[in-house]
Amino acid sequence: LLDNYIEGKSCAVYFFTGVVDGGGIIVKGNTLSTTEEDDGVESAARVYAVDVRNGGYFDVENNKMSAVSAIYLYGGTTVSSAGLLRVADCTFVCSTDFFDSSLVYLDSSVTLHGGAQLRVEGNNVSTASVLVMTSAQHKIELSGSGTTVVLAHNRQVDDSYPFAYLDESNMVVVSPARFVIGCNVQDDEEVSYDGLFPEEVVVFRCGTCN
């Protein structure tokens, strides 16, 4: 899905029950927006029950998005066997005032194993958080060598929203899997991660090479 202008009612793009087995889905260079903002679930891209595996990838890159949330994942997300789910170099502006508006909104559990990666990097976000998971029942579960979640080099234009909105109980990181965060900027200052993530998270600061 390349270089399109798509405006939808509650979502611009909807992926429903997708299995990406060794292939790829690319969403790049698009302008995605919604016209409704009543329910708080309006999203530029809505993804239901996606399973990415065996080196497959779901890549959302260099898009301009306007909605309550940019990427809304629900129904269960699984990434395994060196699969990749990536949101990178996008510009997102929240179209209204919801307390949990986010670049990536997780409304279900996300499971990564077998060298899988979830990467959220290089994005520019206005009046929204970067990552949100509001329900204590949902988990981000990581296991296996090479399995990694990365939140890096993202920029929030102002500090009206927290960088991330989740609870330590939402995350289960089983070594040697890694959850890595670094060099994110909020209102032109490096983000403080105090109280946002559990001790297992690896943090690197701006100016360090990782």
From TrEMBL:
**Protein name as catalogued:** Dispersed gene family protein 1 (DGF-1), putative
Q: Which organism is it from?
A: Trypanosoma cruzi marinkellei
